[in-house]
Amino acid sequence: MEGFLETLHRSPIIGALRASSFHTMDETDFSLCQVFFLLESNILELKDILPKFVKVPYFLLHIDLFGGIASDESGLIFIRETFPLVKGIISTRTRTLLLAKKAGFISIFRLFCIDSESLKTGLRVVKDVAPDAVELLPGVIFPKIKSFIPEDALPPIICGGFIREIDEAREILESGAVGISTSAKKLWQMNHTKW
What we know:
- With 195 residues, the protein is an alpha/beta fold.
- It has helices at residues 2-10, 43-49, 73-82, 94-102, 116-129, 142-145, 166-174, 185-188, and strands at residues 13-18, 35-42, 58-62, 66-67, 86-91, 106-112, 133-137, 157-160, 179-182.
- Helix 7 (166-174) links the parallel strand 8 and strand 9 (179-182).
């Protein structure tokens, strides 16, 4: 996990992908981020997708939206052994994250923060699961709600959702997020500029 956080420190913009994204990507796009999240796909597409990411240090899979394999212990072990390029698992489910940690994956809890009650529920899950990081959605609200989050209550925070502009991304990172997951390719370039 330490290497993952060091990578985000150097390259905080995470490429967020869906299976349909690959039709609009060219070779240089794959080099813009050191971390990619695959947010939806299936086991048949994964074997074709992964070879494009052999030079990417961290490729993580959102298992809740992944077809063709269960997010149980056997499924996670199968992913680990069949697709060693997958370094982490993203999920909203407590049991899935506990099993992912047991299988040796980086674990990221996806927290949808729609109101103060969902934040409280999320904080309880974090306490029970102790994921390696939390992906807070919609990430664009993070600077406004940061004061509601006890400093020691969450592991490192990654923000995702509705982040499209460089000034938004800059404000989120300056507010303490370790990373931003986005499908907006113009933000991917921030990894290579002095923002």
